[in-house]
Structure formats: C-alpha cells, structure tokens
Amino acid sequence: MGAVLPLLALRAFVETGRHGSLKAAAEVMGVSPGAISQQLKLLTERTGVRLFVRTRQGVSLSPAGAQVYPALLRAFDTIEDSMAVLGAINGRQTLTISTVPSFAASWLVPRLGGFTAVHPDIEIRVEASSALVDLRRDRVDVAIRHGLGHYPGLVSRHLASPVFLPVACPRLLADGPRIRTPKDCLKYPLLQDSDRSDWRLWFKALGMADDARFERGPAFDDDVLLIRAAEAGQGIALLRDVYVQAEIASGRLSVALDRPWPTAFAYYAVTLPGADENPAIASFIAWLQHETQGEQAAL
C-alpha cells in the first residue's frame, strides 16, 4: 500500500505559489497563515526540498518549487473542474463570489437566503477578502468591488453609490485651515481605511490627479476605530453617512466638506466578458441589481 499523499500540504503549496503570500493562501483555504506555514513545513520535511524563498513582497517559488508547481496547479484545477461536473450532474451549480469583508458581512451574507430561496439549485460560495483577484486564475464568477468601475478587460455593472462623508472633530476644523475644496482636506492628516483606498478613490472621483498624499496617514481596520480617531482630533476620516449620523447629530463630529456625491465612487459587479451567458451568473447579477435598487443607505 502506497504512502498517503499530503493533499492539504500540497494544496497549501499550490495556493501560496499562486498568490505569493501565506496570508492570501490562508484566506483562500479558510485557515490561518500559521496553519499554511505548518503545512509547508511538513511538506518540506517530507520531501527534503526547499519550496519557497522569502521576498519583500511575500514569498516566491524556489527553483525546485518552480519545477513542480505547474503540474500540481493543473492537478488541483482538474480536481475543481471534476467537482463542478459532479455538481452539474446533480443539478446544482456553485458560484464563487469575491467581495470585501465589510460588504460581505453587512450586506451580502444577510440577504443570500433570499437568493437561495428563489434559486435552490445555485450554491453561493463567498470569498471575503480585500485582495484583488484575477477572475480567471482564481476561478471567481463575480467580484463585487468598491471603486470607480475601471477594470480593464472585464465587464463592470454599477450597483449602488453609498455616500461617504469627510468628517472630523469640530475643534480640529475650527482651529485649522478652512476647507473649501477637496484639495484643502490634504492640509489635515487623513485617517485611512485598512487598504488606504477610500481617500484615493474619493479624490479621483472628484477629478483630482493622483497624488501620493492621498494614501498617507494612520490606517484602521474597523470603521469604529476610524470614528474614534476622528472624534479624538487625529485627522479627517472618510466614512459612510449612515455610520456617523449619531456623531454628527450630537456634535462630536462635523462634516468637513459638503459636496455633491460623485456617483462613480460606487459598488460594481465585475465579471469576465460573456460571463452572463451562464444562466446562474446572469440570475445572480440580476438579483444583485434588484436588491441594491433603493437600498443605498444600507450600503
């Protein structure tokens, strides 16, 4: 009887090679980066071969790892294709949806039951990650992203434009330079979201040329932390209007600049060209667009 194949360790190797990051591989597999590291260690001990080398950006395949990676990648892709075939035989189809964690937790996941009730033969798999995905390589059917809708080579469909407000402690604004235009916000520290993307997108949506200052300032993983930092006078935060209604009403925060909202700064459903020829994908996109109509405040 042959030795048992270390399939979990091999999958960890393939996903780490695919994404160049233990953290990204962990997100895909639904485990911790430490678990990925342990599986790679076990595989290295079993084979006696160094599979990765560390880089400033993460990890990259070693010469030995690069030799076996393509064949193992094809093997796992074949397994996924076979599972899709089995699912189709059973009359069910699985769609993989990639979106940012905040959208998944606050909007998408609570509503998925409604989609499943209407489409019981379509299973939804949600990958909640802030990392950019390659739809073809990562086998993602629909990506829901917050941005300006510019995704070269892909098809994007506008879903909704949630309103973000630049807010700050009233005393900070009273003691500091007057804010008349979006550019004046740069005279203050900018409090950033975890990806340092919201301010950059907001400035660009208002017509400003790209500037390194858009991404400077302390970053926070949670909107509650952003609100507290703004209340403490640490800078200006860009937050959804529904998240700061109470703080503005009580006077703990003030709107730094009241401008018409740039509708291009929105949520988009992004797919490969021709993806909506798949009835399941077309049904999911139609459901998304229906659900987001009239629900801008919830986004």
From TrEMBL:
The keyword DNA-binding applies. InterPro entries: LysR-type_TF_proteobact-type, LysR_HTH_N, LysR_subst-bd, WH-like_DNA-bd_sf, WH_DNA-bd_sf. One of its GO terms (molecular function) is DNA-binding transcription factor activity. Residues 5-62 form the HTH lysR-type domain. Keywords: DNA-binding, Transcription, Transcription regulation. One of its GO terms (biological process) is DNA-templated transcription. Belongs to the LysR transcriptional regulatory family. This is Transcriptional regulator. The lineage of its organism: Bacteria, Pseudomonadati, Pseudomonadota, Gammaproteobacteria, Lysobacterales.
